Structures are given as C-alpha cells and as structure tokens.
Amino acid sequence: MAMQIFMVRKANGTQEPFSEEKLLHSMKASGVASSIQQDALKRVKKHLYNGITTQEIHRSLEVLINQEDPRAVGRFNLKQAIMALGPTGYPFERFVARLLDEYGYTTQVGTVLSGACVTHEVDVYAKKDSREYFVECKYHNLPGTSTDVKVVMYVKARGDDLRDRLLLEKKDPHKFQYEPWIFTNTKFSSDAIAYAACQQIRLTGWNYPQEHSLASMIEEKKQYPITVLSSLGPDHRRTLFENNCVLLSDVTKKGSACERLPLPNATRLELEKEVNYLTHE
After folding, report:
1. Measuring CA to CA, how many Å separate 171 from each of 40, 83, 121, 176, 206?
2. What tens digit of pLDDT does each residue of 152-192 get?
3. What is the extent of the structural domain holding 213?
C-alpha cells in the first residue's frame, strides 16, 4: 500500500509535501536528543492532514520538546525569537552588529557615510582586517516574507555612490571600498539572489547561504537573542534593548550595561539560570 503524502501549507501560502527529513533536521539543529526526535516525529505524524500549516506543526513540536527538554525548545524557537526583535527593525540591526562582533568584526550602528551625491545612513558599518562593509538589515515581522530584488538594486546603487566618492577623492577603489552586505531574518527572492551573485553583493538570510546562513552563524557561536528567554517580560526586554543588550551573553557579562540595570533580584537570577541552561551543553 502506497504511503499517503500530506501537503503542508507554508507561511507564504504555497504548499509542499510533508518532509520527515526537514523536521528531523530542525530538531537536530536545535540540540534535541535523538530519542526525543523520533518520538516527536511519530506523534506529529499521527495528527497530519492535508493543508496542515507549518505553524501548527511547529506548535505541536514546541509542546512535545518542552515536555522533554526545555533547554532545546529555546533553540527550536530561534526563528520566532528573531521575529520578536520587532516591531521596528532597530533591535535587529543591533543584533546583527553584536553577532558580527562575535566573529571578529568591529561594528558601528547607524553610521552616516558620504557618497559622491548624497550621504547614506548605514544600518551597520563593519570592518575586519582590511575590508569594510556597509550592512543593510531587512527585518520582517511576518514569516514567509521575502527580501526582493528591488532591495538588492537599491543597495547596489548606494554602493556605487560610495565608491564614486572614493574616485573623487582620488583613492584606489580596490583598496578603499565599502562592500555591500545584506542581512534578512527571512529569505531572499530568486531574483534577489541572482542579481546579488551577478553584482557580487553578499547576502545572509535565515537559511541562505546554506553554509553561512544567519541561523548557522547564530548556532555556531551560540549567540542567541534575548527574545528566546521565557523569563523575560516585554518591559524588561525593551529596557535591555535600549541598553544595547541583545545577546544572551550580554545579560551575564561582567561590567556590561545589562549588569547595572535595575532588575529585581529574582528576575536577574531567573535570567542567569535560563541563559546558562540555554548556552551550555
């Protein structure tokens, strides 16, 4: 008897066949134990139906994983935690800057650079070794939203203006150049990817490129956003954002602005306990 194929409705409205491999991969990447993975997969498959949404599957898994390993559920909810950096894009810009810091870049948020024609406010200015980047951060608070080719073309135009300024100053544009780099918390359209490849513009999306995606960059350094913390309320979250505390490591770092925040002792202890639980194997 042929195995029934169930269609899953994605956030953007399209459908695809249910994939055991994709589900197991997402749990494995979150640090969920193999025994829990198989049990969760069996229980999810019992409730499949044609047209089930990815959100329904995610919620079911979240409940199951939380029962067995609360530490893993924080990582499993990582994509939703990045979405929770909104509603504005500014916390996402700070998050990208702090993440790049962990990779050895020197960063500044909200820098103004002069082009040949106009000035440009850059979301994140990043420098490492002899290379300088102007980073455009495209935050979306709805899953399934793509960063399209118009954004990449806009960034290309800004890069050209910055490069032309260097030519006016008689600087070698190959030695002194602001390289464009676009981060998004969702995905890029196929045209955006094609145009960026043609124009040599660096892209980092949630799962793109596969080897150096935003998700993999976060997991590699275990630099999770504070929005994964279940013990952190919206008011305290806002206070931490305002003090440039966007990573879990910021919460417990000695001498940081986070350490000096007027948080109740019980809240601080609960935060530290949850941070240690999430960041240690």
Report:
1. 59, 41, 21, 7, 36
2. 999 999 999 988 887 887 666 566 567 999 999 999 999 99
3. 90-221
